[in-house]
Design a protein that fits this description.
The complex is a heterodimer of chains A (924) and B (251). Chain A is α+β, with helices and mostly antiparallel strands and 924 residues long. Chain A is 37% helix and 24% strand. In chain A, the strands form 10 sheets. In chain A, strands 2, 4, 18, 19, 20, 21, 24, 29, 31, 32 and 33 form an 11-stranded mixed beta sheet that branches. In chain A, strands 5, 6, 7, 14, 15, 22 and 23 form a 7-stranded mixed beta sheet that branches. In chain A, strands 3, 30, 34 and 35 form a 4-stranded antiparallel beta sheet that branches. Chain B has 251 residues and is α/β, with parallel strands linked by helices. Helices cover 32% and strands 26% of the residues of chain B. At the A-B interface, helix 18, helix 21, helix 22 and helix 24 of A face helix 3 of B.
């Protein structure tokens, strides 16, 4: 019987089937997306503290074990992270709404800085002597003087005899300026000829070993040898220096003081930044003390075989090292025979020479700083070394002990052109970090300073220093006990030029991200960013809402980029005791106190259910139930007479109810089965995770929808009274309503909407739900750009519009439109006799169409206004401040709802034209 | 139809009109080759047994149904060849009274009366005209009554008022008293006559009641869709006499 009913009402059954199919399939597929990644925040911000940035983004897995365990971050931890964030990820972070500044930094590594420190030995010169040889023994001091590294001696030969500089050298021999041509004797460098008292000319040959060629920087074993002439007027003239393979000779001016340039190799950290965000985040442009700030267009350029790298350099060196020089004078007998003695012979003689100490010259100079004003470009960086963060062991008393190992500079100073001579002696100190060569010196890089910045002048520097993983502040560690403090002379331990040293210096040389492809190659430049520091916009106080907003942005960064994020707001400093093992260059074991950063909040990415999406998906089902309930009620009304006849012949009530609900349930079951079959391939097509179990859930879901919507109609069916069989089909109208709106089609339509108040209400409710969800979605998308943080039941909550939400709202709207269309269609069908009467009385097709269309638009408008109002109310309650545009958007949503209602009315209104007058009037 | 003819009612010409219905495989002729002419201002009774084609003829003339063959010309307009959307204009000039009244149950008597003109701009005040017509059919004071609150006769009066609201030049009444007791039926007929006197129009009444036919100028009898009798009742003989001569009280 049920089956025959369904077949008889094939079109109605199909409509129900389609509605249930749409709702269950939509719900089943969409619920596959409710699991989202949520950034869970634990811990409370105990201080109203905010640094220069709120969120720190690092490459996936950049958190160290110690950090993860204790929520503590070692100072200057960024220096150990090299790349891992792509430019695309950086741009994605910039695009995220509410991100005020996203400033990337690419740590490139440690490079070699080669410098000659001027050592003034004027006062050590005995002006009575015609010739003298002064030996200078440099000692470099680091770790506040506790570590000592010596370098090969530097001999300074001072003669009062005239010197003739070399002019050129070729295969035939060496030509001097006076025309003398000498055979290119072995073991003589590019030194001048000295004219002796008797007029003989003898070559000076330096003191290097045969294989060194006399070059200063190829071997740290070859003593350096510099020649000066003490002029009759008492001034000093350095012997003209021939370079570039003897092609040209450089003359030096005579000077009052005797300054010897001593080789001083140190290191500097190199990093690349994006100038504009860096300036906005930290005010780096305001910290420039000479020259200019970096520009986004500053890029590396090839020039004369070298790559010029535009750079901003720190005013102060970021390492703590001093130079101390011990001077002595070599035995006069040896010195007088020096002219004409070849280098190898002199080397051996000097090794056993008697010397008289002259004292120690303390050099106040610091490692060379590039000088923009004087155009000093003295920093050649051909080598980049990466170092890893230290690994810590725990002492029983809670102190951390960085793992120490024997230095292995051979493994990472393998630059083939410079050798180890250019490296500071401190690379032989105990190692606390692993170091790896980051480039093979393919390109010779020359730092081209555009400006100098002073880290002390950075805006809000004091606050910045409290943010973990700071960029520009030199790390320091004070002595933790009396012994250590005394050893350090009450100063903090500072980094040395050893890339494997415990403390790593902050970057001293800053270049632009645009210059990276030239420096490290386009391939590696693509993901060279080590960290992105993010400041959230519109943060004035750190109240709960703001913190939720920061959390939401951190979450979005995490979900869109997959990178590690940390919320730095509310961080505090915590002293951490570190036991530093003794070094091999003299530094005893130290017990230090470092200020580590305790993160104010810990974050973790959790799987969470997007409740807002669940709510939206649920709306689909609610609207579907409204649709079904209405359709089923109409079917019962349609069949009142039939049901009454069944009641007449003795059917019990429950059988009547079962008849009605059974029909709907059968349609529901069929739709559920088809839906289950569709869910899996559809999920795959739209890339939504859905299992078989979830797909199969469509069957009971569809049944449930059908049964729930059949409850009221089934009760109505059970109440079928036998007397109904005799009553006219047209239901009596109980109460006359006077039309106050005049006698127009519109007023007729308005009256019609009140004839079946239940049906009108159901349709309006469906439209209201659809438009309400639509209004909320539209406001969130347009006014709040897809993200809003607000309060819901007292909790700070962030809402983020996802694509699936749009789909859900679209499905709800579609179902609402279908529900409204169905109501109108039912109205047309039930009132076809009336409509025919009107037509016979002279109503045109247009008038009848308008009547139905108005009816649809009126119902739709009521629903749309209600829905839009509720939507706006919700947004207003949720977000603290609702801008005026939200009202405009709400109005637009309401209008769209009305327009959709008009659309829903099209088919039912047009169906009026298919009315066949004769058939209807055949009731005559 | 021009204004000059409106005053006297419409001229209706029916030529070779044919219409059949399909009932399963059986083809039932309802109107079979009927040719008639109705002069303006006349009132004609169409009689005949059930199924003789009375209602069908009225439906065809009222453009509620389309004929299979033949033409219907009203005031020189051949409505059988007019396009569907232009038929609305024609229907506005035709008043139709149905046997089952077909009032709109949700509308009050007044609203029912003016329902035909609701979609249109008219020169008169719709409500005033409605009240006037209700008063004319004797229902003054029942303007706000719903059809369910009115008796059959009252409902038919409302239906007649509704048919007249557009000041038709042609009134088609399909068994207007068929569902009424004879006294009420007579009242309705008297009403029609009175209204006709006030507002001249051509009237076609389908009926099988003698006293209805007696009120007419002309009588046409149909059987199986064909005209079997066409007599004028306007001669010297009293209509009642003519009618009894022709076949008794039930036509």
């Amino acid at each position: 019987m049920i089956w025959s009913q369904l077949r008889r009402r094939l079109w109605r059954s199909s409509a129900l089937f389609a509605a249930i199919l749409l709702a269950t399939t939509g719900f089943t597929v969409l619920t596959g997306t409710v699991n989202t990644s949520r950034l869970q925040v634990t811990g409370e911000v105990n201080a109203n503290f905010r640094g220069a940035y709120d969120i720190l983004v690092r490459p996936k897995g950049a958190r160290t074990a110690t950090e993860g365990e204790r929520e503590l971050v070692a100072p200057n931890q960024l220096s150990g992270t090299y790349g891992g964030i792509t430019l695309d990820q950086y741009r994605a972070i910039q695009e995220i709404q509410d991100v005020e500044v996203a400033a990337p930094i690419a740590t490139l590594g440690t490079t070699i800085v080669v410098d000659w420190a001027p050592v003034d030995i004027t006062d050590l010169v005995d002006r009575s002597k015609t010739r003298q040889l002064i030996r200078l023994d440099p000692a470099f001091l680091a770790d506040r003087g506790l570590s000592r590294s010596t370098r090969v001696s530097h001999y300074v030969y001072i003669t009062q005899r005239p010197l003739i500089a070399m002019e050129s050298a070729d295969g035939g021999g060496v030509r001097f300026r006076d025309g003398t041509v000498l055979k290119d004797e072995a073991h003589c460098g590019l030194y001048p000829i000295e004219v002796a008292e008797d007029g003989t000319k003898r070559r000076l040959c330096g003191a290097g070993l045969p294989h060194t060629g006399g070059s200063q920087i190829t071997d740290d074993k070859a003593p350096e040898f510099t020649v000066f002439r003490l002029l009759p007027d008492g001034r000093f003239l350095q012997a003209a220096h021939t370079g570039g393979g003897g092609l040209h000779t450089q003359d030096f001016p005579a000077q009052d003081r005797l300054l010897v340039g001593m080789l001083w190799p140190t290191t500097a950290g190199v990093a690349a930044i994006d100038p504009e965000p860096e300036a906005r985040l930290l005010g780096l442009d305001g910290a420039v003390v000479s020259g200019r700030y970096l520009r986004p267009g500053d890029t590396s350029s090839a020039k004369a075989g070298q790559l010029l790298v535009p750079a901003l350099t720190a005013r102060q060196p970021q390492i703590d090292e001093t130079l101390s020089v011990a001077a002595s004078v070599v035995d006069d007998a040896l010195t007088s025979g020096l002219p004409g003695t070849t280098a190898d012979i002199l080397y051996h003689r000097l090794g056993s020479a008697r010397r008289a100490g002259l004292g120690t010259v303390r050099v106040d100079a610091q490692p060379l700083q590039p000088d923009v004003v004087n155009g000093v470009r003295g920093i050649a960086t051909a080598v980049l070394v990466h170092n890893a963060p230290p690994r810590y062991e725990r002492s029983p008393d809670g102190a951390l002990r960085p793992a120490a190992s024997a230095p292995q500079p051979d493994q990472w100073t393998n630059d083939f052109r410079f050798g180890r001579g250019v490296w500071s002696g401190f690379i032989h100190d105990t190692a606390f970090r692993a170091a790896t060569p980051a480039n093979a010196g393919e390109t010779r890089l020359l730092i081209d300073p555009v400006g100098v910045f002073d880290p002390q002048r950075l805006a809000e520097f004091s606050q910045l220093s409290r943010v973990p993983l700071e960029t520009y502040q030199a790390p320091g560690a004070a002595g933790a006990d009396a012994a250590s403090r005394e050893l350090l002379d009450d100063r903090p331990l500072a980094p040395s030029s050893n890339p494997q040293g415990y403390l790593a210096p902050s970057p001293q040389i800053l270049t632009t991200l645009d210059a990276l492809p030239g420096i490290i190659g386009p391939q590696r430049a693509r993901d060279a960013i080590s960290a992105v520091r993010v400041r959230v916009g519109n943060v004035h106080t750190l109240d709960e809402l703001t913190r939720e907003r920061i959390r939401r942005i951190a979450e979005e960064i995490s979900t869109t980029t997959g990178l590690d994020v940390d919320i730095t707001v509310g961080s505090s400093l915590q002293p951490q005791t570190v036991e530093l093992a003794a070094g091999t260059l003299g530094r005893p074991e130290l017990r230090l106190t470092e200020l580590w950063t305790r993160k104010g909040v810990a974050v973790a990415i959790m799987e969470a259910i997007d409740r807002k999406s669940v709510l939206l998906f649920g709306l689909i089902l609610v609207v579907c139930v409204l649709f079904l309930a209405n359709a089923t009620t109409a079917a019962v009304r349609d069949r009142r007479r039939e049901l009454a006849v069944l009641a007449c012949v003795g059917w019990p009530r429950h059988r009547l109810a079962a008849l009605v609900s059974g029909e709907v349930a059968l349609v529901g079951l069929a739709a559920g089965l088809v839906s289950a079959g569709l869910a899996l391939p559809l999920s795959r097509a739209v890339d939504v995770p859905a299992g078989t179990a979830q797909a199969l859930a469509a069957v009971p879901l569809a049944l449930l929808l059908a049964v729930v919507s059949a409850v009221v109609p089934a009760i109505q069916a059970a109440r079928a009274h036998p007397g109904t069989a005799l009553a006219p089909l047209v239901s009596p109208v109980r109460r006359a309503r006077r039309s106050r709106t005049g006698h127009t089609v519109l007023s007729a339509a308005l009256r019609n909407t009140r004839r079946r108040p239940g049906r009108t209400l159901l349709a309006a409710a469906a439209v209201a739900l659809g438009v309400g969800a639509f209004t909320t979605l539209l406001t969130l998308t347009w006014v709040f750009h897809g993200n809003v943080t607000g309060t819901l039941l007292g909790d700070a909550v962030s809402l983020r519009v996802r694509a699936v939400d749009t789909v859900a709202v679209a499905a709800t709207l579609l179902l609402a439109v279908l529900a409204l269309a169905d109501v109108l269609y039912l109205n047309v069908r039930e009132r076809s006799a009336e409509l025919a009467t009107l037509q016979a009385a002279g109503w045109s097709d247009g008038a009848l169409t308008r009547l139905i269309a108005y009816e649809g638009v009126l119902i739709g408008a009521a629903g749309a206004l209600l829905g839009a109002g509720v939507g706006l109310f919700f947004v207003d309650r949720f977000a603290a401040a609702v801008p005026a545009t939200a009202v405009a958007v709400t109005a637009a949503a309401a209008l769209a709802g009305v327009a959709l209602s008009g659309l829903a009315a099209v088919l039912p209104a047009l169906s009026v034209r298919r009315l066949r007058l004769s058939t209807l009037l055949a009731q005559e | 139809m021009t204004d000059s003819t409106t005053g006297a009612g419409a001229t209706v010409r029916v030529a070779e009109l044919a219409k059949h219905y399909q009932s399963g495989d059986v083809r039932i002729p309802a109107v079979a080759g009927v040719s008639l002419e109705f002069a303006p201002g006349t009132m004609t009774a169409i009689t005949g047994p059930s199924g003789s084609g009375k209602s069908t003829l009225l439906h065809l003339v009222g453009a509620i149904e389309a004929p299979d063959a033949g033409t219907i010309t009203v005031d020189d307009v051949e409505i059988t060849s007019v396009k569907r959307r232009h038929l609305t204009a024609y229907r506005r000039r035709v008043g139709f009274v149905f046997q089952r009244y077909h009032l709109l149950p949700a509308l009050t008597a007044l609203d029912n009366v003016i329902a035909p003109v609701v979609p249109y701009r008219v020169k008169f005040d719709k409500a005033a005209r409605g009240r006037e017509l209700l008063a004319a059919v004797g229902l003054a004071g029942r303007e706000n009554a719903l059809p369910s609150q009115l008796s059959g006769g009252q409902q038919q009066r409302v239906a007649i008022a509704r048919a007249l609201v557009g000041a038709p030049s042609l009134l088609l009444a399909d068994e207007p008293t068929g569902n009424l007791d004879s006294r009420t039926g007579t009242e309705i007929l008297d009403l029609l006559a009175a209204l006709r006197a006030e507002h001249p129009m051509t009237v076609l009444v389908a009926t099988h009641e003698q006293h209805v036919a007696a009120a007419c100028d002309r009588l046409i009898r149909l059987r199986d869709g064909e005209v079997v009798q066409d007599v004028s009742l306007a001669g010297g003989e009293e209509p009642e006499q003519t009618l009894s001569r022709l076949g008794g009280s039930r036509l």
